[in-house]
Specification:
It contains eight helices and 15 strands. It is of the alpha/beta class. Strands 1, 2, 3, 4, 5 and 8 form a six-stranded mixed β-sheet that branches. It has a five-stranded mixed β-sheet with strand order 11-10-9-14-15. It binds beta-D-glucopyranose. Beta-D-glucopyranose binds next to helix 3.
């Protein structure tokens, strides 16, 4: 089954067609950069542009960087505040004419990683998947089943929210060496360990590709591994959500 997966981000909106049986992209990845805090209308227009460019009709899945319940956004940490309380699924559906489901972006990426990425992730009781980019996103899985809309990037670590302290954006803004960033991120992971005691951390987002640069500086005690799907995970997971929401049960 082929579905369109969309990844809405703070600096770009991306999409591709995904074979939801294999988790592989079956089209090019179409990517449009956006200004920070672009209004919802602009993003929705870009999604329609992506759909047209890929010549796609059918269910659409989109990952949004905030809390999403039944297609409605309830937070907007790194995107325009006008998203809050808007029904994003309906906005996309009205613009594209295609049935649409919207879930949190980290949840989407986590679902894809658990299914198609790290091979034995399902064998761990509690898995915490983290995306580290502009923000820090989280998805928690208990025996393979996800708790949606966890927002652990906003947990206070010391005096700052985790994502203001140790996201990739914070690393760049504070011009941190890998060692200094690793020290901060260790504190974040130790805080999560102390409160939630996961059995495995999977690190995704842009930083998963740089794992070798910083892994030696991570001193937390829980097993910690890089994600496999890198920057396609969000798109793949969004397409999986569309497949799950709209395909006929066998
Ligand atoms: C948002 C999360 C999102 C994460 C990664 C955070 O600021 O609150 O919902 O998953 O960024 O994009």
């Amino acid at each position: 089954m082929i579905n369109l997966g969309i990844d809405i981000g703070g600096s770009a909106t991306k999409g591709a067609l995904v074979d939801t049986k294999t988790g592989l992209l079956v089209s090019e990845r179409v990517r449009f950069e956006t200004k920070p805090l672009e209004k919802p209308k602009v993003i929705i227009n870009l999604i329609e542009k992506i759909r047209k460019e890929l010549d796609y009709k059918g269910p659409i899945g989109a990952g949004y960087p905030g809390i999403v319940k039944s297609g409605i956004a309830f937070s907007a940490a790194n995107v325009h505040k006008d998203f809050i309380h808007s029904n994003i699924a309906e906005l996309i559906q009205n613009k594209t004419g295609q049935p649409t489901v919207v879930i949190n972006d980290a949840d989407a990426a986590g679902l894809a990683e658990m299914r198609f990425g790290v091979q034995d992730a399902k064998n761990y009781h509690v898995v915490m998947f983290l995306t580290v980019g502009t923000g820090i996103g989280s998805a928690i899985f208990v025996d393979g089943k996800m708790i949606p809309n966890t927002e652990l990037g906003h947990l206070l670590v010391g005096k700052k929210e985790a994502e203001h302290y140790a996201s990739d954006a914070a690393r760049r803004a504070d011009k941190l060496s890998w060692k200094s960033w690793g020290k901060r991120f260790t504190e974040v992971l130790q805080t999560y360990e102390f409160l939630l005691n996961p059995d495995l951390f999977i690190l995704g987002g842009g930083l998963s590709a740089r794992y070798d640069s910083y892994s030696k500086y991570l001193k937390n005690s829980t097993k910690t591994i890089p994600a496999k799907l890198e920057n396609t995970a969000g798109i793949v997971g969004a397409a999986m959500a569309a497949h799950e929401a709209f395909s006929e049960p066998n």
